Amino acid sequence: MPAIEVENLRKVFYISKKDPGLAGAVKALFRPRFDEKVAVDGISLRVEPGEMVGYIGVNGAGKSTTIKMLTGVLVPTGGTVRVLGRDPHRDRVANARDVGVVFGQRSQMWWDLALVESLNLIAKIYEIPAARYRELLDEFAATLELNELLSVPIRNMSLGQKMRAELAATLIHEPKVVYLDEPTIGLDLIVKERIRDFIKEQNRTRGTTVILTTHDLGDIEELCQRVIIIDAGHIIFDGPISTIKDRFGKYREITFEVAAGAARLELPAGADVIAAEPRTLALRFDRTQTTASQVAAAVMSQVDVRDFSLAEPDLSAIVKQIYNGALQEEAAA
Amino acid sequence: MQRYLNLYGAFLGQQFKSYAEYRANFIIGASSTIMMQAANLLTVWVVMQQIPDFNGWGFSELLLIYGLITLSKSINHMFADNLWTVGRVYIRSGQFDRFLVRPIDPLFHLIADRFCYDGVGNFLVGVVLLGAALAGLDLAWTPLVPLYILLAVLSGGGIFIALNLITCVTSFWIMDSVPVTRAIFDNHLFAQYPLTIYPKAVTTLLTWLIPYGFASFYPASYLLGHDVGVYAWAGPVVAAVLLFAGYRFWQFGLRHYSGTGS
Ligand SMILES: Nc1ncnc2c1ncn2[C@@H]1O[C@H](COP(=O)(O)OP(=O)(O)OP(=O)(O)O)[C@@H](O)[C@H]1O
Ligand SMILES: [Mg+2]
Is B259 in the pocket of ligand 1 (CB under 6 A)? Predict the structure, then answer.
C-alpha cells in the first residue's frame, strides 16, 4: 500500500468580493458575490512508504493547500486523498495518530507552557506509553539539543529554538508520514543543517515518509531523491532530482586554473567565457551543442592548463529556470 | 469518555500552571466578575425595595430565578468560553489548524484548550444567590430538591453552551462570529426575570426558539410549586437536543472550513 495516494485533487476557494466602503459592505450583504480561486487543480501523485519527497513551486502555487488536504485540515473540492489507506478528513482521529505536521512558523505548542509541559500534554493526547515517551524525549533532547530549552516557555524562544522544539513535538508520537511545510524558513545555516540531519535520521532509522515544502533547494538536495514541482495548482514535474539536472540543466560550468591567460580562445560552438582572470578561466557551455571533453580539449590546446574542474549543475539555478517557464517551452517544442 | 476526562484534567492542570504565572490576571478576572455581579444584584435589590411585589413575585423568588440562570451561565463561562472567540482567536490566526491534526475531537480540543477562571467568580456568585434565595423561601425539602436543582443547572449550562456552539459555527464562514453569538446570547437577560411579565411573543421566544427559559424560569417555577406542566422536566431534553444539533452543525461547518492563506 502506498503511503500517500492522491487522485485528481482539486481545491477551490470562494472569496467574497466587496466593493470598498460602507456601500460596498451593504451591497455584499444583500447580494454576495464570490471570486473563485482554484488553488489546486487536478493533482495526482503516489508516495511510497519511506520516500522523502520535495514539494516545491513559487509562492501561491498551491503547496500549503495541498498539504492541508493531505492532513485533513481542508476538505477537497474534488478528487480523492488516501493516506495509509484512509481518508484523512473522514477518518481524522485515526489518521492523526499516524501523521505529523509542521506548518511553517505556526507553532503547535502552548505559548505559555514550558517546552517539556507542552510535550507532556502532547504525549497524553497521542497516548504515548510513558516509558517510550521518556526514551524518545531523551533521544530528541540529545539530537535536537533541547536540554537547556525544556524548561523555557515557547514564547521566550528564538525562531531556531522554536523550530527544533516544533520538530520534537511533531515526531514524538513516531508518525509514519510527516509533512513539513517550510521547516527551515528564516533559520541560520547551522540550525538548518541540524534540522536536515534530524529529518534524515528519522527517515533512516524509522522509515518515516516525508513530504517537504521549502523555498530552500539546499533542503531538497540534502534530503530528497524525488521532487514534485507544482505551478498554479498543476504538477509540472515529478521525478528524481537527477532527471531535473539532466533534462533542464542545459548549461554547465567548467573552470580552469591556468599559467597565463590567452589573448583569444577558439571555442566549440555553444561555449562561452564567463570570467577571465589572470590565473583562472571560467567557461559555460550548452550541453546540447558540445561536451565537457571537447571544451576541455579546445582550451588545453591553446593555453597552459594546470588544473580544471567541472561544476555540478546548480539545482537552484535550474529550478529558477523551470519556474520561469522552461518547461512550458519544452512542452511546446 | 474516560480518556477525554483524563485529558481534560491534564489540560486543566497545565493551564493552572500557566495561570499561576499570571496570578494578577487571574485575581483581577475573578474579582471583576464578582463585582459586576454585585452591581447587578444591587440593582435588583433597589428595584425590589421600591416594588416589593413584582408581578406577584417576591424578592427571594426572583433571586431563585436569578441564581439559577447565573449558575447555568457560569457553567458555560467556565467550560466553554472558547466558543466565543474561535473565529477571532483561533481561526483568524491559523491556530485552529492544529486542532484538526490531533487524534482527539477538534471541538473537545477547542473547549479544553481554555478553562475560563473568570467564570469561577460567576459560579460563586450563583451559589451565594441560590443559597440566599433558598434561605428566604419556605420550600418543602425532599432529597429530590437538590437533585432537581443540580439537573436544572446542568441542563441550563447545556443550553447556554449549545446556543453559543450553534452561533460560533458561523465563524467557519464569516471568521468573526462574536456579533452573531452576542445577538443570541443577550436574550438570556430576559430570562433573568419571570417570563410571565412579558408579552406572549417574548415568552414563546424564550421557550421555543432561544430557550433560556429552561435555564431559569421553568425550573424555578417548579421549585416554587407553580404548575408549569411538562416544562418543569423539559430542560434536560431541550439541552440534549440542542447540544446534538449544535454538534452536527459544527461538523457541517468544519467541512466548510477554509483556513487562512499561508
Ligand atoms: N484560505 C484561503 N482562502 C482563499 N484563498 C486562499 C486560501 N488559502 C490559500 N489561498 C490561495 O490559494 C493559492 C495557493 O495558496 P498556497 O498557500 O497553497 O500557496 P503556497 O504554494 O503554499 O505558497 P507559499 O510558497 O507562498 O507558501 C494562493 O493564490 C492563495 O492566495
Ligand atoms: Mg505555503
Answer: yes
- The number of C-alpha atoms within 13 Å of B206 and in the hemisphere containing its C-beta is 26
Q: Which ligand is nearest to the CA of A77?
A: 1
Helix (H, G, I), strand (E, B) or coil at A10: strand
Q: Which cell is B108 given?
A: 473537545
d(Cα B58, Cα B35) in Å, to the nearest integer? 24
Which pairing describes strands A251-258 and A305-310: parallel, antiparallel, or unpaired? antiparallel
Please check the confidence at residue A25 and state whether its pLDDT lies above 90. no
Quote the pLDDT of residue A330: 57
Q: Which atom of ligand 1 is nearest to the CA of A215?
A: 25
Note the residue count of chain A. Answer: 333
ipTM of the complex: 0.87
- What pLDDT sits at residue B52? 67
The whole-angstrom separation of Cα B98 and Cα A181 is 13
3-state DSSP assignment of residue A195 = helix
A224 and A172 in a single domain? The answer is yes
Q: What number of C-beta contacts closer than 8 Å exist between A and B?
A: 71
A68/B104 CB distance under 8 A: no
Q: Measured between CB atoms, which of A99, A106, A120 is closest to B94?
A: A106
Q: Which residues lie closer than 8 Å to B163 by C-beta, 6 or more apart? A: B184, B185, B210, B212, B242, B246
User: Per-residue confidence at A62, pLDDT binned at 50, 70, 90?
Assistant: very high
Residue span of the structural domain in which A263 resides: 250-312
> pTM of the entire structure?
0.87
C-alpha–C-alpha distance, residues A89 and B74, integer Å? 34
Measured between alpha carbons, how far is A138 from A132 in angstroms, rounded to an integer? Answer: 10
Residues A273 and A203 in one domain: no
- Domain total of chain A: 2
pLDDT tens profile A285-304: 888 889 889 999 999 888 88
**Whats the size of chain B, residue-wise?**
262
Q: How far is CA B15 from CA A136, A202, A317, B33, B46, in A?
A: 24, 32, 49, 20, 39
Using alpha carbons, list the distances in angstroms from residue A173 to A119, A149, B102.
Answer: 10, 20, 11
Domain assignment of residue A327, yes or no: no
- Which residue in A56, A23, A58, A68 sits closest to A244, CA to CA? A56
Residue nearest to atom 25 of ligand 1 (CA): A59
C-alpha cell at A162: 522554536
End-of-domain residue from the set A214, A245, A276: A245
On whether residue A258 sits in a domain, the answer given is yes
Q: How many CA atoms lie within 13 A of A323 on its CB side?
A: 14
